């Protein structure tokens, strides 16, 4: 049986050793089947207590991603295929087959493998939490890695972040910069955006990230899409996520939609490829389906429609509907450019100074 690491709902476990953060796994209590509440709480409490010793007991070899893949109990059957392709019909359209579903599911779980540079922006709205923001991002991979994102919250959303009453809130902007080693997150004061006051930025946090070591130990990149979730004998699911090599957080909903893909698409019987459509200049596959259980409750979603870039797996557009048919969440890409030259001047033009 594969060796697993279990955590409480919504908590990500970063497996930390000298090499840095290597992988992430989380567990949803909602998947404990028909056990009563007391038994579920007992199992989760035991798992939490075991966290401190689980790494030592597993004897994981952290030498590189290949040895980690084996140490976590994955086998040749779990290896990610390298030859996934879309199957076209005679009319040159993509058919709703298991092979095509696996292709787009793999793309969404591994977007970082399918571009060198990214520039774009999108609008995000979540009706049930009154969260609304516009995101702008720029990413350059490779040896001279750099990333930038800017998140502009609308007034009511800013109040959620600051604890202010909605009527008192003003727009708020958060920016994040990553130069391949250090990530810096800043906040621009609200009055700067609304009153033209001299701009001041407050550093929220900084973090050191060793991308080379992260990439060398990103064993999840070797795991086939269908093996990225494992279930133990007690019904607890563990999820394996790729390393965040761009250092960005807010924009991952679009450019690295791993959590959404696993939550919405893991069961191929609950969704279909219903067509193809151009959105923001990108050729997208349209996916439509139904959602139930934990993710349905978490995202207030009973039905969904996703527009996914067929080349990169980036989520270009999404619509989520609750049980009453109301739009509960949406994401709309307003611009995106893939693999166009990104220079230091490109970042400067966005207001990012490394």
UniProtKB/TrEMBL annotation:
One Pfam family per UniProt: MucB_RseB
Keyword field contains Oxidoreductase: no
Keywords in alphabetical order: Signal
This protein's record includes keyword Cell inner membrane: no
Extent of the signal sequence: 1-19
Origin: domain of life: Bacteria
InterPro entries in the cross-refs: MucB/RseB_N (IPR033434)
Domain MucB/RseB N-terminal per the UniProt entry, residue ranges: 272-347
Protein name as annotated: MucB/RseB N-terminal domain-containing protein
């Amino acid at each position: 049986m594969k060796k697993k690491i279990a955590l409480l709902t919504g908590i990500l476990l970063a497996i930390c050793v000298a090499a840095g953060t290597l992988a992430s796994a989380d567990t949803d209590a909602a998947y404990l089947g028909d056990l009563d509440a007391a038994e579920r709480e007992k199992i989760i409490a035991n798992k939490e207590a075991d966290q401190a010793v689980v790494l030592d007991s597993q004897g994981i070899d952290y030498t590189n991603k290949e040895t980690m893949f084996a140490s976590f109990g994955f086998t040749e059957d779990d290896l990610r295929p390298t030859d996934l392709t879309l199957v076209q019909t005679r009319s040159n359209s993509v058919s709703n087959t298991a092979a095509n579903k696996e292709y787009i599911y793999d793309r969404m779980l591994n977007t970082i493998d399918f571009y060198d540079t990214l520039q774009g922006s999108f609008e995000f709205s979540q009706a049930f939490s009154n969260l609304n923001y516009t995101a702008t991002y720029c990413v350059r991979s490779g040896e001279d890695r750099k990333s930038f994102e800017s998140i502009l919250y609308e007034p009511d959303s800013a109040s959620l972040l600051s604890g202010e009453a909605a009527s008192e809130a003003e727009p708020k902007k958060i920016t994040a910069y990553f130069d391949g080693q250090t990530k810096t997150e800043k906040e621009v004061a609200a009055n700067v955006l609304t009153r033209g006051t001299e701009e001041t930025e407050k550093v929220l946090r900084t973090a050191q990230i060793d991308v080379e070591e992260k990439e060398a130990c990103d064993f999840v990149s070797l795991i086939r899409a269908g093996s990225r979730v494992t279930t133990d004998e007690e019904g607890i699911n563990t999820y394996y996520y790729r390393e965040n090599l761009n250092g960005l957080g807010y924009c991952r909903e679009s450019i690295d939609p791993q959590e959404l893909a696993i939550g919405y698409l893991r069961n191929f019987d609950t969704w279909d490829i219903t067509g193809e459509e151009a959105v923001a200049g990108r050729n997208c596959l349209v996916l439509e389906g139904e959602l139930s259980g934990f993710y349905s409750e978490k995202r207030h979603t009973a039905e969904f429609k996703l527009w996914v870039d067929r080349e990169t797996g980036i989520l270009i557009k999404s619509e989520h509907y609750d049980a009453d048919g109301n739009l509960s969440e949406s994401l709309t890409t307003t611009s995106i450019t893939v693999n166009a030259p990104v220079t230091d001047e490109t970042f400067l033009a966005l207001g990012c100074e490394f």
